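Milestone M4 deliverable, item 7.
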Amino acid sequence: MKVLFIGGSGNISTPVSKLVVEKGMDLYHLNRGTRKVEIDGVKVIKGDINDQAAVAAALKGHEWDVVVNWIAFTKEDIQRDYELFKDSCKQYIFISSASAYQKPLTHPIITESTPLANPYWQYSRDKIACEDTLNMLYREKDFPMTIVRPSLTYDTVIPVAIGSWDDYTIIDRMKKGKPVIIHGDGSSLWTITHARDFAVGFVGLMQHQQALGQAFHITSDELLTWNQIYEAVANAAGVELNAVHIASDFISAEAKKIDWCDLGGDFMLGNLLGDKGVSTIFDNTKIKTFVPEFNATITFKKGIKETVEWFEADPARMVIKEENNRFMDAIIEAYQK
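Output delivered:
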């Protein structure tokens, strides 16, 4: 099987790439070569997907069994990919987002037929527009697409709601005994999925003859409260959790006043009210039916310990974003007032 990943060296796509190579597939990455991630067995085509003419020239003569775009965010990205691959791929997989599911939910169990509607987060609305475009291309142009909706999936990131992502800030803050924010009372339910588990379900969909025209989410079945999630992160850091519980509405309103940090503005409105502030319970029947070997086995307690150890294995990874600390301090100060 000949496979092209647009991107392919990110938090989720790296474990998927490794599994694809392990299974003996012929994997190419199309990227700009800016990330220092080398995966044995992967052939690299250097290029910027946004430069359509240059990419078309670089890919000329190639035929693909599967094309996966890990970095498509707008319907214009989808239309560009259609023009690039309509005659040269047997399956196009789009990475959408489980945040596209209806907020607030009208039914607590999320299946692939749960409506897509998110009035809080532009990121999610853009993913919905991508899906709408793909469905139209599938119906009207017979474009062989599959949609995958990851939820909060991690390997080389710290998957908390506020304070860190690809940086070490929240771990450093915990180790210094500083308070960390948990939205709400911390009792809402959430699902966090390890990227190695996700990879099993994802690779099982590649060139699956019944997956065309279908949408899937791929998540763990482990349900945790946000209190349990932050406790697991603190345990992985080797410290006691010092938590401050603050309502999502309050956090979102205060964040809107902050324009000096990526966490400010409307980001928390989408991040919390449009996503993590709502209990999510995913029904994984569909992915398990199509890919029987999929079964998430890595508990968050085990996985987050591995992730913290990965950060601490190289001081260059232990980046502390002081603007994130300032953001958390500002929200806590406003709340205490």
